[in-house]
Design a protein that fits this description.
The complex is a heterodimer. In chain A, 16% of the residues lie in helices and 40% in strands. By secondary structure, chain A is an alpha+beta fold. A 5-stranded antiparallel beta sheet of chain A has the order 6-5-4-7-8. In chain A, strands 2-1-3 form a 3-stranded antiparallel beta sheet. Chain B has one domain: Peroxisomal Thiolase, Chain A, domain 1 (3-Layer(aba) Sandwich). Chain B has 11 helices and 12 strands. In chain B, strand 10 and strand 11 form a beta hairpin. Classes of the chains: A alpha+beta, B alpha/beta.
């Protein structure tokens, strides 16, 4: 299992639970997840926290099948079968990776609108790791 | 000062299993009056459902999460027995960390218990805004016949003194000592029930009618003055049994009979059913809510509908959106295959 320690996971809670983005004070681009230096202008390390809408469109995606799932997601694959993982372009700009839930994997399409919801991602050391997943918009 | 419900939301997980699938697996289906029931997905639990339904309730007002001054969470099936549960939902929804929160978890009465604690906050703080989230998906052994009824659902309420859609007219409670019905010993993760049916029934009837009749007396009301009556639904028969003792008719119970298609929603039974009744109600209507928790206790709440702002999506839309699973998939999702 790709071990993520408790403190490491905890530090990412603003991103995982409530999609907090970091708007560069120089170029205005939104960094997600946070960066030391803005990944768009490489000229500023000052950011303003912004709450992202969670809405976006599927930029590209892949379907994960048996054997392809990382160990922490193997049980999910066994219970529910193949699941989609997408790169989604959010309304505010950043491209974000995450699972798409509540959809038949065959129905995932590039450019389909999605939104985010809190879900259980996996459990490690008896601690449920919550975070966002994408779901089809308009639900 | 009038206080009441300023907004509400409902969430029903879309997976369903039919009673026929149970009958195929076990030879019979034991949940009276239930034709199918809702099931949570693999990546959902009562906290993710509470977060989702909390957002819906806030948006229905609409009001921002930063305005919430009191948060109450209720479920009989929290993912942890010890841990502050409300924190997960607060952080996800954006409710201020300074907001007083409480977790109500020890019986199916927990939903109304959370609502009444939140109402006390609004009563004491006229400018206060309370959010109550109730989500449940009770779990029992697959060998236990009362497992058949257990479903999943969530409802949330914004309570305040502004933008009221249903005014709280009054409430009454009753608690007493019973045992053997629906309990979870300290070292067990599944609900037990000793299946002493007549004894359990007398507990249900005693507690609910004592609370309900006390409220009618307090308000000087007759049963027929209510357009809608919502009663705890461990199955679809109990509300009828209790209702007939209190002179409530099938017609008054109809809008809130969520168990017929969703099963036993545990602590969320009366909150989800109240949402269904509110969706159906017209300004001027009165709604009586009577919850029940084994062990035992009951809360009765009386509302007068004063607005016609409804949940979005409505209860019926949530109930209609569904995807059927078979019994094997159900066992996998419930973690019953070890």
């Amino acid at each position: 299992m790709a071990h993520v320690s408790i403190p490491m996971y905890w530090r990412t809670i603003p991103q995982r639970y409530s999609l907090v983005g970091y708007k560069c004070k120089k170029c205005g681009s939104v960094n997600f997840p946070p960066k030391g230096v803005c990944k768009y202008c490489s000229a500023s390390s000052e950011f303003e926290e912004v709450k992202l809408s969670g809405r976006g469109k599927v930029h590209t995606f892949v379907l994960i099948s048996a054997g392809g799932a990382p160990p922490e997601f193997a049980e999910q694959e066994k219970a529910g079968g193949q699941y989609p993982v997408a790169i989604v372009q959010l309304e505010e700009g950043p491209k974000v990776i995450g699972q798409i839930a509540d959809i038949n994997p065959k129905d995932v399409k590039i450019d389909m609108p999605v939104t985010t919801e809190l879900r259980k991602i996996y459990t490690e050391e008896g601690v449920i790791r919550y975070g966002f997943k994408f779901v089809p918009a308009g639900k | 000062m009038a206080i009441g419900i300023s907004g509400y939301g409902v969430y029903i997980p879309k997976l369903r299993i039919k009673k026929e699938d149970y009958a195929k697996a076990w030879g019979s289906f034991s949940a009276a009056g239930v034709s199918e029931k809702s099931v949570m997905g693999f990546d959902e639990d009562v906290l993710t459902a509470a977060a989702k339904v909390s957002r819906r309730a806030l948006e229905s007002v609409p009001i921002g999460p930063e305005k919430v001054t009191r948060f109450a969470l209720a479920s009989t099936t929290p993912p942890y027995v010890e841990k502050v549960l409300s924190g997960t939902v607060m952080v996800s929804v954006g409710i201020p960390n300074q907001t007083l929160s409480s977790d109500h978890t020890s019986s199916t009465r927990a939903g109304t218990e959370a609502m009444l604690s939140a109402f006390e906050h609004v009563q004491a703080n006229p400018k206060g805004v309370a959010l109550v989230a109730v989500a449940d998906a009770p779990i029992a052994s697959m060998w236990d016949s009362f497992e058949h009824a257990l479903g999943a659902g969530a409802a949330a309420y914004v309570l305040s003194s502004e933008n009221i859609v249903a005014e709280l007219e009054g409430h009454a409670s009753y608690a007493s000592e019973y045992f053997g019905e629906r309990f979870k010993p300290r070292d067990e993760s599944l609900i037990h029930d000793l299946n002493v049916k007549k004894f359990s029934e007398s507990s249900v009837i005693t507690n609910t009618t004592k609370a309900g009749n006390a409220l009618l007396k307090k308000l000087g009301r007759k049963p027929e003055e209510y357009q809608h009556v919502v009663i705890q639904q461990p199955d679809a028969r109990v509300p009828t049994t209790v209702g007939s003792r209190m002179q409530f008719t099938e017609h008054q119970l109809a809008a809130g009979m969520t168990s017929k298609v969703l099963g036993d929603l545990g602590a969320a039974s009366t909150p989800v059913s109240l949402a269904a009744a509110l969706d159906d109600a017209k300004p001027g209507d009165r709604i009586m809510v009577i919850s029940y928790g084994s062990g035992s206790g009951s809360d009765a709440l009386s509302f007068k509908v004063v607005g016609d702002r409804k949940a979005a999506p409505r209860f019926q839309a949530e109930a209609d959106q569904k995807e059927y699973i078979d019994y094997i998939k159900y066992l996998k999702l419930k973690g019953a295959i070890l």
